[in-house]
# Entry
Amino acid sequence: MESALEIENLSLSISGKKILDDISLKLERGSFAALCGRNGAGKSQLLRCMKGLRKPDEGRILIGGIEAGEKDRMKKCALVFQNAQMQIVSQSVEKDIAFGPENLGLDRAEVERRVAYALHLMGLEDKAKQRPQTLSGGEMRKCAIAGILAMEPDVIFMDEPFANLDYPSTLTVIRSLITLHEKGYTILVVSHEAEKFLAHTDTLFIMEDGKLKEAGDSQKLFSQLSDYDIYLPSGASFGDLTWLKR
Ligand SMILES: Nc1ncnc2c1ncn2[C@@H]1O[C@H](COP(=O)(O)OP(=O)(O)OP(=O)(O)O)[C@@H](O)[C@H]1O
Ligand SMILES: [Mg+2]
# Structure
């Protein structure tokens, strides 16, 4: 399988403390992966390094098999932050989605095509003219996702996409993730809430103390989450790990 993203021996220290310790991993193209680990394990810092927001001390990052520098990764990797509101900058949903492609310097027709596509994929057509500040939590997150889709990224990272969402909004985001996966996007979701979506993933990474401890097929690995003090409903089978079936 072709890899969308590869990390080789990545390490990062902040103020003399090792935050990421010799991490190597491979994300197959089109895969839907989960990255789990306790508070402070280094998940968000790893996303920041992959995205190009932070320069690691050591290691290489490859996209599509080719080494990619920070600038390149900023363009090819999209990151949806935990606080989706932080990513909203405009007065209407459609203007907000247009913001990224406009900044890429694309012509108007291309911007409009991308905005229409992102609105459609996220099911936000009827919200296009609405002020983003008036969206529900789930809609806000969909708007943030639509904004990054319009940039046509190679890889999508999401940090805690279910945080602060109620039940219907959580379902909305899970469905959006499944749609993106079906469309062939490569997705890596960082979450403490494996029980909400893991059944839909194919790959699982587990981090602890800055190290990548486990990597592989979600279905084969999921039962090991509890070894890392990560909550799983007792007796749950892999297929139970979704809120879509509740
Ligand atoms: N600027 C900084 N200075 C010092 N330590 C930092 C800094 N930024 C992050 N860290 C430390 O890096 C470690 C990893 O942080 P990170 O945010 O990646 O954890 P995480 O796995 O995302 O945790 P959570 O699940 O709580 O979001 C933590 O111990 C954190 O305190
Ligand atoms: Mg984090």
Observations:
- The chain has eight helices and ten strands.
- The chain has one domain: 3-83+135-240.
- The chain has a mean pLDDT of 93.
- The CA atoms of residues 118 and 149 lie 6 Å apart.
